[in-house]
Specification:
This protein is α+β, with helices and mostly antiparallel strands. It contains 29 helices and 31 strands. The relative contact order is 0.06. Bound molecules: (3S)-3,7-diaminoheptanoic acid and zinc ion (ZN).
Length: about 900
C-alpha cells in the first residue's frame, strides 16, 4: 500500500526532545502470517522538560483493536499515521498504556516491520519499521527496556527468537508454544527484532578476555549449516578485536546472527539478534568467492561493532546517522585491515575502500543528492543510508584519528566518548567533542569548530598543490589551496581542516628526511600537514635536489588532489614510493591521464578492436616491472594493473559520452593485453594457488591476479583469433576447485565474447540452479556483459522472463536489474534510450511493492545532467516519466524531485 499524499521534509534544526519517555515495553506476539496479534503494554511518563498535552504514537498499516490507559478505556484519534491520546493522566507519574493491534506479515512486501520469508518471520525496524509492528514513539532517542513473548505453532515455527536473554519457554494448547525474552539493555525500538521459523544454528561457546562466558549462534535454514563456519570465525575475530583494540567487550550472554534470503540491505545490528542477508553469512569454497569471504568478515564485524557504536550509544535523531554508521564503517575497515595482516595487504584494503569512495561517494557529492555527512533535511530517511553518511562519514572519523596523532589518542577519545555517553542517544558533535577533549593540544582540539564543517558542508573539496624548488637555497615550497564546489542548498563553502600526509621522494627513489623551515633537525620521511586556510605554504629546507612529492599518502583526506606532476614524477612514485597507496595512485593517474587524453582527442572513436597504442611505452614498461616484481604482493599487482573504472573516468570529464569512455577504456585494456601478453602468461602460470582453499589475503591476491591474467589472455586471443586461451579458460572453469577461480574463468570467457561462453554459462546454471546466491552471480555476470557492442539489453529482457528470476527478491533484483542499470554503463547508456526506458519501467514496478529497493535503483540516473546528447535528453525523459507516475512512494518521489531540480 502506498502512503497517501506527499510527505513533507523533516529538518535537523527542528529537533525537539520527546514529550514522553517509555520506561518499559512488554510485547506479546501471536504469530500468524495472515493475521499477527500484537499486545503492546508500555509504561510511560511525561518528559517534564517538554510541554505537550498529547501523546502521539507512530503507526503504519496497523489494525487497531484496543487502547487502555491504566487498565481503562480512553478516547483517542488517528491522525495521519499517528495515534493521538489527549486525555492522559496529569503529572509526572508513570502510567500504563496498553495497545492491541493486528498486522498481516505475509502481505508485507516492503520487508520493513514484520514480514515472512520462506515461512519464517523476520523483522526490520531501522529506520522506521517498528511503527509497522505497533504504535510507538518510533524515534531513536526513546530508549526502553523490552520484554517480548512470542507464541506460534510449534511445528511450523520451532525456533522463536528476540533480543536479549531467553527467560522462559514452553508448550501451549493446540500445538503452539511460547518463548519469553528479556533484553537487559535499554534500546531504541529500531533495534528491536524477532525471528520465528524452522532454523538450525551453529553454536560456539567463548570466554572473553574479561573471563565471561558467551554463547554465539549463527542461525540458517536447515541445509545451510555447512556454510556458516566463516561467519562464525569472523564473529569470534570481531569480538576479540574490539576487546583488544578498544577495550570493548560483549555485553550479552548470547549473541545471535540469523540469515534471511529476503532482505533489503546487507544486515542489521538489532541488539543481540543481528539479522543478515544470506549473502553476508553463507560461504563455502565451492559457492562463494574471495570477495564474498571478505565481505562476510567485514559485515559480520560491522554489525558486531555496532553493539557499542550504535546500540549502547545511539543517535539522538536520524540526522546523526553517521554518528553510528561512519564510526562503525571506520571500525570495520580497521578490523579488515588488521585481519589482512601484512603491510601491503593492509594497503590493498585501503585502496579498495578508497576506490569505493571515489567511484560512488564522489559522484554522489557532485550530483543532485549531495548532502552533508550530517544531513539537514530529508523526506524519507531511508534515502539517506548513503555512501556519504557511511563511507565519507568513515573518512571523517579517520581524519579525526589522524589529527589526534594516531590510534593511541583516538582510543583515549573513544574511552571518553563511552564514559560520557554510554546508554544515551547523542549527536555527531558529541562524538567529535569527546575525541578532541581527550586530546587537548592536538590539531583536532585546536581546530575543532572548523573541523566540524566536514559534518555540515557537502561536496568534495579540491586541493590544488604546487611545488617550487629553489636550487640556490636548497628549499622546496609546497603551496596547498583548497576550494569546494557549490552543492544543492550550499552555494558557498568555508575552508575545511584537511590533513595532508606527505613525503618527498628523490629522483633515484630514496625517501628524503623532512625538515620544515624553523625546525632544528629533520625528522622522519613522512608527515601530516594540516591545511586549514584557503591557501597555505610549507617550506622544506636542506633539499639537495628537486624532489618528487608524494601527497595525500594513504588518502589522508576525502578530497580531489590536483597536482600536475610530470609522467616522469609519477613513474618515480610508481617505482619507489614507500607509501603503497600512492604507489598505486601514481599508476592510476598515469592510466587516467592516457584515457583522458584519448577522450579529448576522440581516439576512442577508432574501432574497439583497433590496435591503437595509447599508453606511452614508458608506462607499459613500468606496469610490466610491477607485474614482474619479485617482492610485491599479487593483490597489489592486480590493483595496479586494473584500469580506472568507466564510472571513475566519467567523473573526470565535463560532458560524458559513456560509449566513448567505454571504447577508450577497451582500447587501453586491449593494449595492455597485447603488449604484456608474455607477462600475463607468466603471471597466470606462476600464481596458481595450490592446496586447500583459504580466503586469506595472500591466496586471494594470487587468485585475483591469475583471473586478471586469464581475462587479458582471452582478450588478446580475441584480437589474434587464437583459440588456446579461451580453451584454457573453459578448462579452468570446468576444473576449478573453488568459486573464485570458476567465476574468474567464466568471466574471462564472457568478457572476451568467445563462443565458448554460452555453453559455459549453461553448464554453470545446471550445476548451481539450486543455490540462490550462486544464481545471483549467474544473472549478474550476464547483465554486466559488454562484449556485444553494448547490446546486452535484449539478453537482460530475456533473463527477466527466466523462471529463476523474481523481482520480489531483492538479491535477485539487484543481480539482474541493478547490475545492468548501475554497473554496466556501456550496456545501459544506449543511443536509443531503451536502457533508460527499461530503468523507468523497473523503478515503477519495484516501487509498487518495495519502495526502498526501488529508490536505490532510482539513483542509477543521478548523474544524467553530465551526459552528452542524445543520452541527456533521453535520460531526462525517463526520469520525468517516473516523476509523472500516478502513484509513487515518498522514497522515489524525493529522489526524482532532486534529480529534476535545477
Ligand atoms: N543499520 C543498518 C542499515 C539499516 C538501513 C535501513 N534502511 C545496517 C548497517 O549499517 O549496519
Ligand atoms: Zn551500520
Amino acid at each position: 500500500m502506498m502512503r497517501e499524499g506527499t510527505a513533507s521534509a523533516v529538518y535537523r534544526l527542528q529537533y525537539q526532545a520527546p514529550a514522553f519517555w517509555v520506561d518499559t515495553v512488554d510485547l506479546a506476539f501471536d504469530l500468524d502470517p495472515a493475521k499477527t496479534r500484537v499486545l503492546n503494554k508500555m509504561r510511560l511518563r511525561r518528559n517534564p522538560e517538554v510541554a505537550a498535552e498529547a501523546l502521539r504514537l507512530d503507526g503504519e498499516e496497523l489494525n487497531l483493536a484496543r487502547v487502555l490507559v491504566n487498565g481503562a478505556g480512553t478516547s483517542f484519534k488517528i491522525e495521519e499515521n499517528q495515534l493521538v491520546l489527549e486525555n492522559l493522566p496529569e503529572g509526572n507519574d508513570p502510567f500504563d498504556l496498553e495497545i492491541f493491534t493486528t498486522c498481516a506479515p505475509e502481505k508485507n512486501t516492503h520487508l520493513m516491520g514484520l514480514y515472512v520469508s520462506n515461512d519464517t518471520f523476520f523483522t526490520q525496524c531501522e529506520a522506521q519499521g517498528f511503527r509497522r509492528i505497533t504504535y510507538y514513539l518510533d524515534r531513536p532517542d526513546v530508549m526502553a527496556s523490552f520484554t517480548v513473548t512470542l507464541r506460534a505453532d510449534k511445528k511450523r515455527y520451532p525456533v522463536l527468537l528476540s533480543n536479549g536473554n531467553l527467560v522462559e519457554s514452553g508448550e501451549l494448547e493446540g500445538g503452539r508454544h511460547f518463548a519469553k525474552w528479556v533484553d537487559p539493555h535499554k534500546k531504541p525500538c529500531y533495534l528491536f527484532a524477532l525471528v520465528a521459523g524452522q532454523l538450525v544454528a551453529r553454536e560456539q561457546q567463548i570466554t572473553s578476555r574479561a573471563g565471561k562466558e558467551h554463547l554465539l549462534q549463527v542461525y540458517v535454514r536447515p541445509g545451510d549449516l555447512g556454510k556458516t563456519e566463516h561467519a562464525m570465525n569472523s564473529l569470534m575475530a570481531a569480538i576479540a578485536w574490539d576487546e583488544t583494540r578498544f577495550g570493548l567487550s560483549l555485553d550479552l550472554d548470547r549473541f545471535m546472527i540469523v540469515a534471511t534470503s529476503d532482505f533489503n540491505m546487507g544486515a542489521m545490528e538489532n541488539k543481540g539478534l543481528n539479522i543478515f542477508n544470506t549473502k553476508y553469512v553463507l560461504a563455502s569454497p565451492s559457492t562463494a568467492t574471495d570477495l564474498d569471504y571478505a565481505n562476510i568478515e567485514g559485515v559480520v564485524g560491522h554489525e558486531y561493532f555496532h553493539n557499542w557504536t550504535g546500540d549502547r550509544v545511539t543517535c539522538r535523531d536520524w540526522f546523526q546517522l553517521s554518528l553510528k554508521e561512519g564510526l562503525t564503517v571506520f571500525r570495520d575497515q580497521e578490523f579488515s585491515m588488521d585481519m589482512a595482516g601484512s603491510l601491503s595487504a593492509r594497503a590493498t584494503r585501503r585502496i579498495e575502500d578508497v576506490r569505493v569512495l571515489r567511484t560512488a561517494q564522489f559522484p554522489e557529492d557532485a550530483g543532485p543528492m549531495a548532502h552533508p555527512v550530517r544531513p539537514d533535511s530529508y523526506v524519507e530517511i531511508n534515502n539517506f543510508y548513503t555512501v556519504t553518511v557511511y563511507e565519507k562519514g568513515a573518512e571523517v572519523v579517520r581524519m579525526q584519528r589522524t589529527l589526534v596523532g594516531g590510534h593511541e589518542g583516538f582510543a583515549q577519545g573513544m574511552k571518553l566518548y563511552f564514559e560520557r555517553h554510554d546508554g544515551h542517544a547523542v549527536t555527531c558533535d558529541d562524538f567529535a567533542q569527546a575525541i578532541a577533549d581527550a586530546n587537548p593540544g592536538s590539531a583536532l582540539a585546536t581546530h575543532l569548530d572548523q573541523f566540524k564543517r566536514w559534518y555540515s558542508q557537502s561536496g568534495t573539496p579540491c586541493v590544488k598543490a604546487t611545488g617550487q624548488y629553489d636550487a640556490a637555497a636548497q628549499t622546496w615550497t609546497l603551496t596547498l589551496s583548497q576550494s569546494c564546489p557549490a552543492t544543492p542548498g550550499q552555494p558557498g563553502k568555508l575552508p575545511f581542516v584537511i590533513p595532508v600526509a606527505m613525503g618527498l621522494v628523490a629522483q633515484d627513489g630514496a625517501q628524503l628526511p623532512l625538515q620544515l623551515e624553523g625546525e632544528a633537525t629533520a625528522s622522519g620521511t613522512s608527515r601530516t600537514l594540516v591545511l586549514h586556510e584557503a591557501s597555505q605554504s610549507f617550506t622544506f629546507v636542506n633539499v639537495a635536489a628537486e624532489p618528487v612529492p608524494s601527497l595525500l599518502r594513504g588518502f589522508s583526506a576525502p578530497v580531489i588532489l590536483e597536482h600536475d606532476d610530470s609522467d616522469a614524477a609519477l613513474l618515480t612514485l610508481l617505482a619507489s614510493d614507500s607509501d603503497a597507496f600512492n604507489r598505486w595512485e601514481a599508476g592510476q593517474r598515469l592510466l587516467l591521464r592516457t584515457a583522458l587524453n584519448a577522450i579529448a582527442s576522440d581516439a576512442g572513436a577508432a574501432s574497439v578492436t583497433g590496435q591503437n597504442a595509447l599508453i606511452p611505452a614508458t608506462v607499459v614498461e613500468a606496469l610490466r616491472t610491477v607485474l614482474r616484481h619479485p617482492q610485491l604482493d599479487a593483490a597489489f599487482k592486480e590493483l595496479v594493473l586494473t584500469l580506472p573504472s568507466e564510472a571513475y573516468i566519467a567523473e573526470q570529464v565535463e560532458v560524458v559520452d559513456p560509449q566513448q569512455i567505454h571504447a577508450v577504456r577497451e582500447q587501453l585494456r586491449a593494449q595492455l593485453a597485447r603488449e604484456l601478453q608474455a607477462d600475463w602468461v607468466w603471471a597466470f602460470e606462476t600464481h596458481q594457488a595450490s592446496g586447500a582453499y583459504r580466503p586469506d589475503a595472500i591466496s586471494s591476491g594470487r587468485r585475483a591476479l591469475t583471473s586478471l591474467a586469464l581475462s587479458m589472455l582471452c582478450l588478446a586471443a580475441r584480437e589474434s583469433g587464437d583459440a588456446i586461451w579461451p580453451g584454457k579458460a573453459l578448462q579452468r572453469f570446468k576444473d576449478a576447485g573453488n568459486m573464485t577461480d570458476r567465476l574468474g574463468a567464466l568471466g574471462a570467457l564472457v568478457a572476451s565474447g568467445h563462443e565458448l561462453a554460452r555453453p559455459a554459462l549453461e553448464r554453470f546454471h545446471d550445476r548451481f540452479k539450486d543455490d540462490a546466491l550462486v544464481l545471483d552471480k549467474w544473472f549478474a555476470l550476464q547483465a554486466g556483459r559488454t562484449d556485444r557492442g553494448g547490446d546486452v539489453l535484449p539478453a537482460v529482457q530475456q533473463l527477466l522472463k527466466h523462471p529463476d528470476f523474481n523481482l520480489k527478491n531483492p538479491n535477485r533484483a539487484r543481480s539482474l536489474v541493478f547490475s545492468y542499470c548501475s554497473a554496466n554503463p556501456a550496456g545501459f547508456h544506449r543511443q536509443d534510450g531503451a536502457g533508460y526506458a527499461f530503468w523507468a519501467e523497473q523503478v515503477l514496478l519495484l516501487d509498487a511493492f518495495n519502495p526502498q529497493v526501488a529508490a536505490r535503483l532510482a539513483r542509477a540516473l543521478d548523474r544524467w545532467k553530465k551526459l552528452a546528447e542524445p543520452y541527456r535528453a533521453l535520460a531526462r525523459a525517463a526520469i520525468e516519466r517516473v516523476a509523472a507516475a500516478p502513484k509513487l512512494s515518498n522514497d522515489v518521489r524525493e529522489l526524482v524531485t532532486h534529480a529534476l531540480a535545477d
